[in-house]
UniProtKB/TrEMBL annotation:
Native species: Glycine soja (Wild soybean)
Signal peptide: 1-18
GO terms of molecular function: lipid binding
Protein purpose: Plant non-specific lipid-transfer proteins transfer phospholipids as well as galactolipids across membranes. May play a role in wax or cutin deposition in the cell walls of expanding epidermal cells and certain secretory tissues.
Name the UniProt record assigns to this protein: Non-specific lipid-transfer protein
Key words, A-Z: Disulfide bond, Lipid-binding, Signal, Transport
Keyword Ribonucleoprotein: no
Biological process annotations from GO: lipid transport
PANTHER family: NON-SPECIFIC LIPID-TRANSFER PROTEIN 2-RELATED
Family: Belongs to the plant LTP family.
Length: 116
């Protein structure tokens, strides 16, 4: 009976060791894809489509580590510079989508200082 338990433990260890690591970090592509429906609002104001808010929630939900949150912040800054996003609209977006972002969405935010 003891040898059966040992065999089971060995098999479980082998399965864990051979399983691929499922580490998936948030990328700027993820941010761009999820926030694409927001681009019109972020540039011109107006109505915020529900698809935009869904994308905002997806990004917030997938950014579970400090590194992910810093990456999202940096991607937002990059997008703001590339697409001429209006800072006021960007800062208002979380409230318009009824979500909370624990840092100021701004080109001047030090993304590396975000810790969670």
């Amino acid at each position: 009976m003891a040898s059966l338990k040992v065999a089971c433990v060995v098999l479980m260890c082998m399965a864990v060791m051979s399983a691929p690591m499922m580490v998936q970090a948030v990328s700027c592509n993820d941010v761009s894809v999820n926030l694409a429906p927001c681009l019109s609002y972020l540039m011109q104001g107006g109505d915020v489509p529900e698809s935009c808010c869904s994308g905002v929630r997806n990004i917030l939900g997938s950014a579970s580590t400090t590194f992910d949150k810093q990456t999202v912040c940096k991607c937002l800054q990059q997008a703001a510079n590339n697409y001429g996003i209006n800072d006021e609209y960007a800062q208002a977006l979380p409230a318009r989508c009824n979500v909370s972002v624990p840092y100021k969405i701004s080109r001047s935010t030090n993304c590396d200082s975000i810790k969670f």
